[in-house]
Structure formats: structure tokens, C-alpha cells
Amino acid sequence: MVFKPPRFHEELPEIEIENPEHERLESAVARALAIAQGVDASDLTVTATDTGITLSGNLLWPYEVERAVEVAKSVPGVENVNVSIEVAKRAIE
């Protein structure tokens, strides 16, 4: 079987970034969270929308949620942070 490169009317398709500003903000916030002290951002997802930044995922401690929001708001261009983060439940012995 022969696979040919995809073409659109005999021209190679162009890949466009739909919202370059969103990508820039997502990357900047993710970078800031990755190096921030006081929050383990390894299980967080950063999504930029027209209404702001959404942080989603899981954290171990409630104080990490506050710290993640603080770090996200410190990034230039971020005005609003929506939070959809779950904090791990622990059994008390």
C-alpha cells in the first residue's frame, strides 16, 4: 500500500493556530506554575478562553489551589482565573 502526503487541491495543507494569543497565555501560565514554589502543578491543565484562564486537574492540598490562582494571576495578560480543581480526599487515622 502506498501512502501519499495529504494535499488540498494539489497544495500542501497549512496548519494555522486558531488563537495565537490563547496559546501564548496558556504557555506562560503553565511555565509559571511549573517553576512556582508551593504548588505541584504536574497534574494541572491550563486552558485559555475568551473569558480568561481555566485551571483544571487535581492537587493534594487546599492551599495549593490558592497558590495556583495567585501564580496564574501574576502572569501578564491574565485577568480572570476559573478554577476546576479537585483536592485529594484523605482518610484520617
Automatic annotation (TrEMBL):
It comes from the Bacteria. Residues 21-89 form the BON domain. Pfam families: BON (PF04972). This is BON domain-containing protein. It comes from Rhizobium daejeonense.
